[in-house]
Amino acid sequence: MKVSLDEIRQVFSDLIQEKKSREEIASWALSRQDANDDDNLEFEPIFEKKKIWKAIGYLTGVDLLDFDGSYLHSVENFVEFRKKLSL
Question: Rg of the Cα trace of the chain?
Answer without folding.
Answer: 13
